[in-house]
Each structure stands twice: as C-alpha cells, then as structure tokens.
Design goal:
435 residues, mainly alpha
Length: 435
C-alpha cells in the first residue's frame, strides 16, 4: 500500500506540474503577445510536439515495454542505439529543411516559415530530452520523466519571458523563440547529467545502430500506430491552419491546451499502471490484469467527471484567463471538453493493447479514424470555422477511444469499465508489494 501511495503521489505531483506549466505558458503567451503572434508561436509549439514524436520513431513504447526486461549492460546498448537513431534523424530533417529553405523557400512567403526556422533548431534537443523522459518513466522515476517531457522547458521559458517583460514593455516574437531554444538546451544538459547519475549513460563506443529483429518489428508497428495516432489527435488542427487566421489558431490552441489539462489525470493513471500491466501480461494473469485495469479506470472516472462538470459550467469565466477577447469562444472549450470526457472514461485502452502484443489492432483503428479525419476535416474547417473544427476534433477522439475500448473486450476478454471492489483493490496493493 505504501508503494502505491508513493507512486500515486510522485506521479500526480509531477503530472500536475507539467500540465499546469503548459497552461501557464499558454496564458503568458496570449497575454503578452498580440493575437496574431500568439497564434504563430502556439502553432510552432504544437508542431514541435508532433515532430518530436515523429523523430522518436516509435521508441517510446519500445522503451516502456522492453527496457526493464534487459540486463544492465544491454540497457546501455539498447538506449544508446535508440538515442543515436533519434539524433541522426533529427539532424537529417533539420538539414534537409534548411536546404529547402535556402534553395526554394523565401522568408517573405509566410511568417510560418520564419517561425519554422527557429523550430528546426530547438526540435533536436527537445526530441532527445523527451526520449530521456521515457527512459526515466520506464525506471519509475516519474518526477524526472515529467521534468524531461514538458515541465523543465516550460518553466525555464516562463522565467525568461517574465524577466525580459519586466525589463521591457514590448518583446518581439523572435525573443520568445530564442528563449525556447535556450530552455530546451539547458533542460537537455541537466537531464543527461541526472541520467548518468542514475547509472544509465549513452556509450557510443559499444553499440549497434541496428536493433534485434523482434524489437525492430515491434518498433515499426509502434511507429505506424504512433503516426496514425498523431493524425487522429492533431490532423484536424493542422488542416485548419489552411482555413483559419493566426488569431483563430491562437484561440483553438488555447482551448486545446485547457481541455488537454484533463489529460494529465489519464497520464497519471497510465504512468502508475503501465509497470503493473507489463508484469501481469508477462505472467499471463488475465484476471489480475482485468482487476487492476478496472480499478485504475474507476479512479480515473471518479476524479475526472467532477472536474469536467466544473470546467464546463464555468468555461466562459475560465477561458478569460487567456485574455478578455477569448471569452466569446467558451463554446469551443465546451466542445473540446466533451471530447476529452470520452478520452478519459475509456481508460488506458491503447496501452493495454500495445503492451499485450495487439499493436496491429491499434494501428487498424487509427487507420479508420484517419479516414474519418480526411473526410471531415476540410469541410468542417472550411464551412464550420472554429466550431466545426472543434466538433471534428472531439468526434475523432471519441471514435478512436470507443473503438479501442471494444478491441480490449475482443482481445483481452473483458470490458474496461470503472469498477472498484475490495478484490480489485487488494490485487493492486498486492501487485505493488511484489513489484
């Protein structure tokens, strides 16, 4: 019981800090930049998240699934191989962008191009930093995992902006990019130092650029599912850039950020439950797996539902923290909150399928939802504006999670319903005692 409470507290504390640091960053940007510049910056921050996932090439779930099953010397080799591949692909894509930039793309073409110039620089340390975060997560070092994934960069950036804002009343957009680059570099340097102290270091003298055949096959499947998942989560958002002006993009980004704060609860549950899922799946203990999964699903639902109700009722007042002119867009936030409701109530369905060897099911669901997005995104953005885009985003999230919910029943033999019983609680506590 003690181990469970410690894990819940450490994960909860770290994820709350990460979620609200991201929200604080958005509030700061929308209140210190013009609506247009805020739209450009928040778009680039969102794009950096997506590119970071792409550059990590499916290594996230592979680390979570296999890292702790390896011997210490194999862990170093495994981590170094993935690190080197991520570093290589990040540099190659950035160099390729600059080749296109200097050859074909004129800076006067769009202020988005001007912003992507800075993105091509900080995306490299940001991607490596996020990867280290998943190594810490696999070792159950949850606070350091959150530090690497979002918190450190957000906090350092906020401090820099507050200092320069105090010294100068007007700060140009380019300085925000300078601060973001600085934040990623400082955070990565510190993360590497802490990783070495944790007896995990990258040894470039003894590693293979290739993974084992079974690991490579798994990574490819994870990567395909991840790419499709990105399309599901962010495809409509990026398509909407073609139809919405930067000020509207700022509104959509702010509402998205606020709605996704609820996702930190799901992240807490996932982070604490994943090690137990892996353990029970490895033992083939399907009944224990069901009891543990349903218990965590109950915790997720009981915490999330009251929050969603409060946020929904007071959405107009809450959205005003981004600026007075944002209050008229409270309906956008309400629609996105309904999408997040479906996301959290279905529980850790994606992780259950991925960790149990049913990655192909996740991929198939993502393909179906991707087709829905391609059909709905353009008309919803073109004719529906912000409301149409927010409805399409919520529907795509609901479609994906409900489909995965059904696949969990089909593959694992149980419905992931939020049930809490004495037997389920005892199973969770016993699993943590033996962990």
């Amino acid at each position: 019981m003690k181990n469970l409470l410690i894990s819940l507290f450490s994960v909860g504390f770290s994820k709350v800090l990460s979620a609200f640091s991201g929200l604080a960053l958005t509030i700061l940007v929308t209140n210190t930049l013009s609506a247009e510049d805020a739209g450009y910056f928040l778009f680039i921050v969102t794009l950096s998240f997506v590119l970071s996932v792409i550059y990590r090439q499916g290594s996230d779930n592979l680390i979570l699934r296999e890292f702790n099953l390896l011997e210490d010397n194999e862990k170093v080799k495994f981590a170094t191989t993935l690190w080197s591949r991520i570093l290589a692909i990040s540099i190659i894509f950035s160099l390729f962008y600059w080749f296109l930039r200097l050859t074909f793309l004129d800076i006067s073409f769009s202020r988005y191009i001007y912003s992507i110039d800075y993105l091509s620089i900080f995306i490299i340390p940001l991607t490596l930093l996020n990867f280290i975060g998943f190594i810490f997560q696999s070792k159950s070092k949850f606070i350091m995992a959150s530090f690497c994934q979002t918190f450190a960069v957000n906090i350092i950036f906020i401090i820099c902006v507050l200092i320069i804002s105090f010294l100068s009343h007007e700060v140009e957009l380019k300085y925000y990019y300078y601060f973001y680059i600085l934040s990623t570099i400082i955070s990565l340097t510190f993360a590497i130092y802490i990783l070495k102290k944790s007896n995990v270091k990258f040894n470039l003298d003894n590693y293979s650029f290739r993974l084992r055949k079974d690991s490579e096959t798994t990574r490819v499947i994870f990567y395909q599912s991840t790419l499709l998942g990105l399309v599901v989560q962010w495809g409509i958002y990026f398509i909407s850039v073609l139809f919405l002006n930067p000020s509207e993009i700022a509104v959509l980004s702010a509402c998205n950020r606020f709605a996704f704060v609820l996702g930190f609860i799901l992240t807490i549950v996932n982070t604490v439950s994943i090690p137990l899922f892996v353990k029970e799946i490895k033992k083939g203990a399907n009944n224990s797996l069901r009891e543990i999964a349903c218990s965590f699903s109950f915790i997720l639902a009981s915490v999330t539902l009251p929050l969603i109700i409060i946020l929904f009722i007071y959405s107009k007042e809450l959205i005003g923290i981004f600026g007075e002119h944002y209050e008229e867009y409270f309906l956008i936030l309400q629609i996105l909150l309904l999408g997040q409701l479906g996301n959290v109530l279905t529980g850790s369905v994606g992780y259950l399928l991925n960790l149990s060897g049913n990655e192909k099911d996740v991929r198939q669901v993502s393909i179906i939802v991707t087709l829905f997005i391609l059909v709905s995104a353009f008309p919803s953005a073109h004719y529906g504006g912000l409301i149409g885009v927010s409805i399409a985003i919520s529907l795509s999230i609901l479609l994906q999670n409900l489909s995965l919910f059904v696949f969990v029943r089909y593959r694992l033999g149980f419905w992931l319903v939020p049930i809490l019983s004495r037997k389920n609680i005892n199973t969770v506590i016993k699993a943590y005692r033996n962990d």
